[in-house]
Amino acid sequence: MRRFSFLLLSVFSFHSSGWAKIEPETYVYKTVGDLPISLDVYQPEEGENRPVIVWIHGGALIIGSKVWIKQEQLKAYLDHGYVVVSIDYRLAPETKLPEIIADVRDALIWVREKGPEMFGIDPNRMAVVGHSAGGYLTLMSG
């Protein structure tokens, strides 16, 4: 319950100061035509079998980027031992909503399949959170 409360507080504590400065590892989780779609992985300093937070940016589905995760929010997650994965997805209006949702689902599948070996995550302890349109996409991702 304590971790759940922490997650709720962190989602609602979006401050207006500074974008993330902690350097991630970037991976392509999907390619559509010639367009690679990537995600950023931020890892705490140590630990095995760690919980993971998949973060989805907002932007009304028409703007935004995985780099929009706030430094304070990211630091709080990492300090509590979470691996954080911030994803990109194709944007509207060029991409229709079903394809945007498919991008999010494909990112979640990639994290579940690759994450345990690559990042030491426990795929059974995955939380999906988002800001604004990203929150909507968390609900639509199933």
List the defining traits of the structure above.
142 residues; alpha/beta; 5-stranded mixed sheet; 36% helix; globular
The average pLDDT value, as a whole number, equals 90
Helical content (DSSP H or I, runs of 4+): 25-40%
Radius of gyration: 14 Å
Q: State the CATH class.
A: Alpha Beta
**Helix and strand string, N-terminal first?**
HEEEHEHEH
Task: Give the tally of β-strands.
Answer: 5
> The biggest beta sheet, please?
5 strands, mixed
Question: Please, could you describe this protein's structure?
Answer:
This protein is of the alpha/beta class and 142 residues long. It has one domain (2-140): 3-Layer(aba) Sandwich (Rossmann fold), CATH 3.40.50. Helix content is 36%, strand content 27%. Strands 1-2-4-3-5 form a 5-stranded mixed sheet, sandwiched between helices. The radius of gyration is 14 Å and the shape is globular.
Summarize the structure.
This protein is of the alpha/beta class and 142 residues long. The chain has helices spanning 2-12, 71-79, 97-119, 133-140; strands spanning 25-32, 35-42, 50-56, 83-87, 121-130.
Question: Which helices and strands occur, and which strands form pairs?
Answer:
Elements: H1 2-12, E1 25-32, E2 35-42, E3 50-56, H2 71-79, E4 83-87, H3 97-119, E5 121-130, H4 133-140
Parallel strand pairs: 3-4, 3-5
Antiparallel strand pairs: 1-2, 2-4
